[in-house]
Amino acid sequence: MLKLTLPESKPLLKPGEKEVLFVTNADLRESANVECWPVQSKFEAKLEQALAKRLGLKAKRAHLYKGDKGHGFISSQREGSDLFASIDPDAPVIVLLTAWQYSHHLAPSLVKHRGPVLLLANFDGTWPGLVGMLCLAGTLTSLGKSYSRLWSSDFEDEFFYKGLESWVKTGTIKHDTSYLHPVDASHPVAKTPAWEIGRSVGEYVLRNKEILGLFDMFCMGMINGVFPQKALIDIGMPLESLSQSALLVEMAKVPQSLREECLAWYEARGMKFNFGKDPAKELTRDQVLEQCAMMIAMARFTQRFGLSCVGVQYQQGLAHSCAASDFAEGAIGSTERFPIPDENGKIIRPGKPITCANEVDMGTAVPQTMLFRLLDSLGLPSETTLHDIRWGSDYEGTFYWDFEISGSVPFEHIKGGIAGSTGYRQPAMYFPKGGSSIHGQGKAGRLIWARAHYEGTQVHMHIGTGQAVELPAAEFERRRRATTYEWPLLNCTLDGVGRDDLMAGHQSNHITVAYVDEGKLADVLRAFVAQAVTQNIKVCVAGDAFKLL
Considering the chain, what is the average pLDDT of its residues? Predict the structure, then answer.
């Protein structure tokens, strides 16, 4: 006779009549969690004050501070799963985010949670809960889970209070996302020559396939960056799943002489590396030489498998094995690039960038690869990259975004190109093996931006336009010091899309950008929309870009 024995369940945690439960999620890397805890603690106090002062409620923490770890964050999927197994499934829950967080710690439990869920973030550059919130929001959207989102710089403004009150009383917060305009082949723009160009490119992709070659997947908990296979196949962009262990093997085959030649090539063109002697804290030549080997190995895989795009997961895994991937990813995505030979000495794709999706995010690999194919087919500059939607603030009456990624930008996006770039050691908190970033100020110019996400197995894409600006030195320096000093920083406005618009409707912490000359912007936008529609993607055009159609 069968006998069932399961671990004993704990009594369900339920909020009292005047209580609201909150949880908090953060990193898998404990060094980051310890560093970020003081700010989290500060905003927990602010949340408690706001609930008490405005609504007469008490904030109840659903999990304990971990004295042995030095923080009170959820820091693993197991921990998050155990926590929600002990919470009343109908209880309203606030997820308070003040740092980067791994969405998979909580997402599987939040999807099954019946009670209202609020993702609440601080809006800050140094401690970017907003980045983590956008990632978790995009993840829950992709998984079909209803939720609310809210953000604030200090948890003291009326926007924050009204949103919090709405969620407490109704279980929802309704934001205006009317800046997003659905577009399909029935729009009048479909009768333009530019649409026909985009349709032809889309049909080419569906017929010939753009293969996305990614070295491992699921970087830093980004469920929103891992698309279902059917979703990719339906748009003509299937996955070539590669192993980072194979990348290490290929790197080992790159001789020292070729590594040295590669580094010397960038130094001869004016890139400045901030070299030191202590590899634990400073950038060393050996670290950059290892990054050169990675770039060469990546290019050889690209040629071997006929890839249209390549990307490296890096965190977690390679972070404890070799120097950071960012210099390699940014350099390989540049048109001006060290001539990389294959095993027979033939230069790989000379004169063309090799599209590179940082953090193996498929939601940016899709628009990056599509933009490369379209722009290259038109004979236009075709370098692309992604950035974190890191922060933003006002300067002389205008709100400028700070878009920033950990170093993997093409040199063509930097003011001054290679000579305008500086290599800093990646922060030891995240990169124990070091490696160089590609730091520089994002050059001024017109932009197309995009982001793909999935709902079920349907790919969706938001597309817009913007203006990159070169802020004065003092203001740029202020923003550098408010974010991550070692990383490249792009300041921009998005046409007809304000801060709260993007925070309300964007489905990722990432955004894809490509530069397009003003005179060609409208036609390229029309063609890109047509290409996406042809590739079976549901498109929304954002803000004033809709007027360009």
Answer: 97
Burial, 355: exposed, middle or buried (Cβ in 10 Å; 0-12, 13-18, 19+)? buried
Q: Show Cβ contacts of residue 204 under 8 Å, excluding neighbours closer than 6 positions.
A: 373
Cα–Cα dist 427/435, whole Å: 9
In this structure, what DSSP letter does residue 344 have? T
Contact 42, 87 (CB under 8 A): no
Are 276 and 288 a contacting pair, CB within 8 Å? no
Reported as a single tens digit per residue, the pLDDT across 28-52 is 999 899 999 999 999 999 999 999 9
Phi, psi dihedrals of residue 16, rounded to the nearest 5°? -70, 180
Please give the Cα distance from 410 to 352 (Å, whole number). Answer: 12
Tokens of 209: 């396939």
pLDDT recorded at residue 8: 82
Q: Quote the CA–CA distance of 327 and 437 in Å, as a whole number.
A: 5
Handedness of CA 166, 168, 174, 175 (dihedral sign): positive
Give CA–CA dist 24/127, Å, rounded.
14
Return the residue matching tokens 């609440």.
120
| Count of CA atoms in the C-beta half-sphere (13 A) of 172 | 4
pLDDT tens digits along 140-182: 999 999 999 999 999 999 999 999 999 999 999 999 999 999 9
Return the HEC string of 290-305.
HHHHHHHHHHHHHHHH
436 residue type, one letter: S
C-alpha angle 398/403/407, rounded to 5°?
Answer: 150
Which H or E run includes 60? strand 58-61
Assign 287 a pLDDT band (cuts: 50, 70, 90): very high
Report the C-alpha gap between 57 and 47 in whole angstroms. Answer: 10
Pick from 310, 328, 308: which is nearest to 374 by CA?
Answer: 308
Query: Does pLDDT of 236 surpass 90?
Result: yes
Domains identified in the chain and CATH numbers: 19-170 (3.40.50.10940), 188-548 (3.20.14.10)
